[in-house]
Amino acid sequence: NNGEINGSAYIGGLFGWLDCCNESKIDGSLQIYNCKNNGTIIAKGEIIADIGGISGAIISGMMDIKACENKGNIVVDGDKTGYIAGIVGLMENRVSMSADTISNSGRITINGESYASLIGGIFGQVFGNGEASLSKCKNLGDIIANCPRVSYMGGVIGSLQCRNYIVETSNTGKVSFFGENDGTINEIIGYKESIE
């Protein structure tokens, strides 16, 4: 995608919301390979959620995302904002999730009147019953949050709540916030909890 995208929720450079699970097929699988976004994403509204350079949100049993890249800037203006990232805003994996050779070089700018949370250069939040495996994931874009309260913000992942295996993953972008920090902001992962 090379075009500008506007909205307030479930916005992605290529996909807004991908759900491969339902009551009869909880182990649905999904593969996303060689996807690229160069277009700017602009989100405005009172409540803004699920914004990503590739997809706003993904729910899947078995998820494999490889060789995907976002170069588009993401600009968010709203009162309450969350689940915002360079690649996928919200990622729920119910069996397994693998991310390999993923990069974001777009700048993420959030202007909020209340608070911003679950923000990452690659993923906003990753959670679920499955294991998350990240390899060669890189964020090069700056993340800037201009709002009174900021939490769960990381250069790569805002919040990681599942079994995980991470190798060769890095952030060289600047993570900046202008407001009250509740202690869950980090250059790599804002908040990490390994679920056994």
Question: Would you kindly provide a written description of the structure presented here, covering whatever features stand out?
Answer:
This protein is mainly beta and 196 residues long. It is 0% helix and 73% strand. The chain has no helices and 18 strands. Strands 3, 4, 5, 7, 8, 10, 12, 14, 15 and 18 form a ten-stranded parallel sheet that branches. Strands 1, 2, 6, 9, 11, 13, 16 and 17 form an eight-stranded parallel sheet that branches. The termini are far apart. The model has no long low-confidence stretch (mean pLDDT 91).
Brief write-up:
By secondary structure, this protein is mostly beta strands. It has no helices and 18 strands.
Rg, please?
15 Å
- Total helices: the number is 0
Indicate the mean pLDDT.
Answer: 91
Which structural class matches the secondary elements? Answer: mainly beta
Tell me the series of helices and strands, N- to C-terminal.
EEEEEEEEEEEEEEEEEE
Strand content: over 45%
> In total, how many beta strands?
18
Sheet having the most strands: 10 strands, parallel
**N-end to C-end Cα span:** 38 Å
- Helix content range of the residues, please? under 10%
pLDDT < 50 runs, ≥5 residues? none
Q: What overall geometry do the principal axes of the alpha carbons give?
A: globular
